[in-house]
Design goal:
Number of helices: 16
Shape: globular
Strand content: 5-15%
Strand order of the largest sheet: 1-4-5-6-7-8-9-10
Number of strands: 10
Radius of gyration: 23 Å
CATH class of the largest domain: Alpha Beta
Helix content: 40-55%
CATH architecture of the largest domain: 2-Layer Sandwich
Number of domains: 3
CATH topology of the largest domain: Transcription Regulator spoIIAA
Order of helices and strands: HEEEHHHEHEHHEHHEHEHHEEHHHH
Distance between the termini: 38 Å
Amino acid sequence: MAQENIITRVFEQGPIRPPSEARSLLLRVTRNCPWNKCTFCRTYKGQKFSLRGVDEVKADIDAMAQISRRIREISWSMGHAGRVNQDVVRRVYQDCSGPHAQSMLLWLYHGAETVFLQDANSLVMRTPDLAAIVQYLLRTFPGIRRITSYARSHTLARKSIEDLKSLRAAGLNRIHIGLESGCDAVLAMVRKGVTAEDHVRAGLHVKAAGIELSEYVILGLGGRSLWREHARDTARVLTRIDPHFIRVRTLAVPPAAELSRQVAEGQIQMMSDDEIVEEERLLIQTLGEVHSRFVSDHILNLLEEVEGVLPGDRGRMLSVINRYLSLPDDQRLHFRLGRRTGRYRSLDDMLNSALWLEVERIRRHFEESGSEWSENDLKLIMAGYV
């Protein structure tokens, strides 16, 4: 089986997607970011924004369908009746190293039910054009159950609820918004290009249209000078919106992001892990009677297990934070090292003697070189994940 038998056409994909869309097919409807000024983001720097044409995107969908049909033909030839199981995955991977076939293969293997529309702000596209793309996608792959997209609050606050309802009717189920902060001072400092009121208006528009809403918060974004305002104002904005999902991310500063310059010049003082955990506690304590799922689905977050459905799980989530903060200094450092090196996912992982010894070996190896672990060492590890 030659590679060209699977791939006779290719399609375009952008650079990123949310962690929750790991099993989604990525369909690029716009290129890069129309704002592209946020100081904490490096993803699209130096790249020009452009809209893709409807026919161009439809051609990509056709290419995806062609590859999908070929993979299912291979499944039939192997006696698996079109199912994409591990045998089919191994066969296609052996005979084809192309990323397009692999992308389709993994999507089919995981059920072929979710699609993420790229890049940073697909909702900036004309509503009829985006609706036409979504409808064509569903006609081509009728088994799709969820179609999601990033969008900026600035865009959504200015879109009518009727426009958003038409997108929901076309098949757009969920929108991810980078809220980042509900504090106007923080939003201005990182040049987000929106206000807290923009965030509220946008979120309420999405919910009024019947679309699921995920709001992203960056823990630590206000630095030491604004951490209380960042936590409290963000909680107030989220309470007014009451989104379906609140997803937290911990700030990490890669060298290529402009935020690194702001840190170097002292405009923002980076917070330690322990300080960020205290900020997260204040955020959760200040949230009102929201009915959101609080999600910590990113490796940058120190306490991944701080998750749950609010308001009912608030007490349990705070107990995890309090448990961590009550640990002795050396145990908190040990956990942070284990988490940042990928050994730990929960506080209970420290009870695993094998994992504990592995983390201690890493610590001793570093200390034997004549150094001690510092905040900067851990921040460098985190920056590598961005």
